[in-house]
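User: Show me a protein chain along with its predicted structure.
Assistant: Here is one chain, sequence first, then structure tokens.
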Amino acid sequence: MLFLVAALAAPAIGPALYGVLHGHPKAVHLVDGFVLLAVPLLVAWQVVPFAWEARSLSVPLVVVAGLLLPNLSERVSHQFEAHTDNLAIIVGLSGLSLHALLEGAALGPEGTVGMAFGLAVVLHRIPVSLVIWWLIRPRHGTWAAVAGVATIVFATLGGYLLAAGLHAGPHGAGIEYYQAFVSGTLVHVVFHQGRHDHRHHGHETGVGQAGHTSDS
């Protein structure tokens, strides 16, 4: 239960860090750099164990497919370009939520959780929430970002409450491949459009601060 409470509370830390650091122009690059490092690590956290167990290149290939498919759709038609990254965010969020659901089940009464696993689940909730906030907040505003982070919280709680059922039924390789695919789409949106959003946002922040200074 202690790990569950911590896992439910930890996602609040990511947005708080964003709010504190992103208000300072010099810290914007620090936040951006952390997210660009965190996303590949989160992808590894989700797909490497299954890839290692399967002893197959199929999982990395599915990740690459998720990474390249948005690029291909944008090249097919410029009409898709405005919507591709938003769709990739939704798909990526669904994969993160699914992963949180399974981790919540592992934290449930039927799960056998070691100290190392419990701490890992709690700690990696912080970069997950920061990535979600980083992607959604500049595009769609605070409430949309809150909703994005809340999906992780509710998925974790739902997994905990449904732990017995989730453990009873095998989730098989299909879920693992889906997580691999959506991980690729998440990498795409972070490295392709995410940096543009935050550079543009940072420029606007700087302009706003300069304008405020001159007015004062």
